[in-house]
TrEMBL record:
The keyword Lipid metabolism does not apply. The chain crosses the membrane at residues 129-153. It comes from the Eukaryota. Keywords: Cell membrane, Disulfide bond, Glycoprotein, Immunity, Membrane, Signal, Transmembrane, Transmembrane helix. This is Ig-like domain-containing protein.
Length: 183
């Protein structure tokens, strides 16, 4: 899987994350100034995973892919407290139910390796999905609030009307008992 380094400002801050379908992203591997040039997270220290690291590359390769390798793989650059993702690739097996992903990719079917041709996830490509989700959530929240305010207003008016009726009835009863008629 290729990491798009065209907009990377500091290669020392490169990372790969994997997000398995339906799970949160997991830190996978990061650049490290050593002989190997990278360090895998403990969960991914497996000889099936390897990296090509130099001044132009920070590419991930999976040899002998398995179904549990499926998911979204994202390369990015850590900038202080946030990650700026530069590219991503989907690894999905035939027969597996299609899952939503902002970064579709294609599998190289000619080998047993997990080297994938990645589709670039340029800035903002996956943002449209979240904008739609957030906008929909806000609209639904507004509708629910308006309905609840309407019900509250209706109940409040109904309560005020019945209190006024009860007060007039009590006043009339009191007037009849004393022999005076109230308007």
């Amino acid at each position: 899987m290729e990491c798009n380094m065209s907009k990377v400002t500091n290669k020392n801050n490169l990372v790969w994350y994997r997000q398995s379908f339906g799970k949160v992203p997991q830190y996978f591997v990061r650049y490290y100034r050593s002989n190997s040039g990278y360090i895998f997270d403990d969960e991914f220290k497996d000889s099936r995973f390897s990296m090509t690291v130099n001044d132009q590359k920070f590419d991930l390769k999976i040899i002998g892919t398995r179904e549990d390798d499926g998911g979204e793989y994202f390369c990015g650059e850590v900038e202080r407290t946030k990650i700026k993702f530069t590219s991503g690739t989907r690894l999905q097996f035939e027969g597996e139910e299609m899952k939503h992903s902002p970064t579709p990719g294609t599998v190289n079917n000619n080998t047993d390796s997990g080297t994938l041709q990645g589709s670039n996830c340029s800035h903002g490509e996956g943002d449209n999905f979240w904008i739609i989700v957030l906008t929909s959530s806000i609209i639904i929240s507004l509708i629910v609030n308006v309905v609840l305010l309407g019900v509250l207003y209706k109940n409040q008016r109904k309560g005020a009307s019945s209190r006024n009726h009860q007060t007039r009835t009590n006043q009339t009863d009191a007037g009849l008992m004393s022999g005076t008629v109230l308007p």
